[in-house]
Amino acid sequence: MTIDIAGLGQIVGDSNVLTGKDAEALFTDARKVHFAEALAVVRPASTDEVAAVVRWCVTNDVAISSQGGNTGLSGGAIPWGSGPAVIMSLQRMNQIEKLDPDGWTMTVQAGVLIQTMQEAAVAEHRLFAPDWGARGSATIGGAIATDAGGNNVVRYGNMRDQIMGVEVVMADGEIWNGLRSLRKDSSGYDLKQLFVGSEGTLGIITRAVVKLHQTTPHEQSALAALSSLDDLMDVFALAKDSAGDALTAFELLPEVGIQKVCDTYDLVHPMETRADFYVLIKLGSNRPVTDLLTDFLALAADAGQITDAVVAATPEQEIKLWTLRDELPPTGLYTHHATGIKMDTAVPIARMGEFHNSVREIAAELAPYALTYGFGHVGDGNLHMNVLPMGEADIAKFKSVKPELMRRIDELTFSMGGTLSAEHGVGRDLRDRVVGQKSSVEWKLMRTIKAALDPDNRLNPGVLIPDP
Ligand code: MLT
Ligand code: ZN
Predict the structure, then answer these.
(1) 179, 220, 223, 226: which has the highest count of C-beta atoms within 10 A?
(2) Which domain holds residue 290?
(3) What is the CATH number of the domain that holds 320?
(4) How much distance in Å is there from the Cα of 428 to the middle of ligand 1?
(5) Does residue 172 fall inside a structural domain?
(6) Residue 351: its pLDDT value, please?
(7) Ramachandran region of residue 341, left (φ > 0), alpha (ψ -120 to 50) or beta?
(8) If you take atom 5 of ligand 1, which residue's CA is the nearest one?
(9) Which of 261, 296, 326 is where one domain is finished?
(10) Residue closest by Cα to atom 8 of ligand 1
């Protein structure tokens, strides 16, 4: 049966129903791993329009994948193989509706960029804390839907911790306005949290109230060369003990990654000393942090945990150090990144080094020709390990061992009480692999919630929840 999409144009205007070439960029995910089978991209400009599009989809029995900045890394925003579907792009809902410095909140539409929120908050002497490399293209709606994390989670928590209220269009087109800004509310189930990390499977987030924090006008970062990966947790403990609340980011960077970023973007390695691993540490406060930072580095050096360090002395140097971190993901660095394995694992933080080394051992056994490197958010136990075939000649070999590689690594993750997805979401990529991470009771609870809120399985079918 052909579906006439003219009705969508009547809701959002014909120019906001994209097909063919106009829709191409939004039919493919950021990593170019998934390609949508969809009727169109629909671009509503208000909650009422979102609700009307949902009602049109109900009438025409069409599935909906909602999409923000399309920067997701698990393929959760690309409909595929589940029958007729549309992509609901929230990008036109890009207004900051209210910034309340005294209430320490900001109310935004789902399509506002993370960077726009950061800048708006700073203009009012407040801080919107979440931050990661894709800040300039990721939207708040997508970030809530995937419970995104990033570099500052060690201090401020992840997206879940920033959310005070949400507005959601439900699967039948009804609108739930849960835009509260209460610090405390023990009046029943915390429904807003149900939608954080729900990846568009329970409702479409259209607006949100987020928390703001104190600004940290004094920020300074240092890159320190680790004596050995075995010292990682000791250096982290020392940073926490000596910097306290000022510790804003604590990231692990491997030499192989820094080298590749420098080569790719024509940058100069910031340190003469070479090590296998470095940590990039940012302190932030309303008072100068230079002494705190240098004292910590001196203590770490005295303890033999680091062999060298560079401290950013200017904003330009600060940006240079963080560029090394932002550009570490393989998508921008390696030709065959999409064939490789990209991980978003979290394990109990004390076991990060063990996880890193065990993945390397598994990869060395099954794919010795592959490049294995890891980087990530030490304070959150969140390590992005990557196993990548380098040359064309290795692709077929790699593809044949990939299922076994993933099976062994997943088994390792589960045996450590870890998660396959710390901050990227499950999407399509991890849906079948995540089964073993939760008990049958937990999956039954999740399926019960899904069935109650979306009985027709209209919202992002094939994403997040494995088949029974
Ligand atoms: C990061 O930490 O850089 C992000 O999670 C992106 C990625 O892993 O690709
Ligand atoms: Zn990350």
Answers:
(1) 223
(2) 218-326
(3) 3.30.70.2190
(4) 17
(5) yes
(6) 96
(7) beta
(8) 150
(9) 326
(10) 329
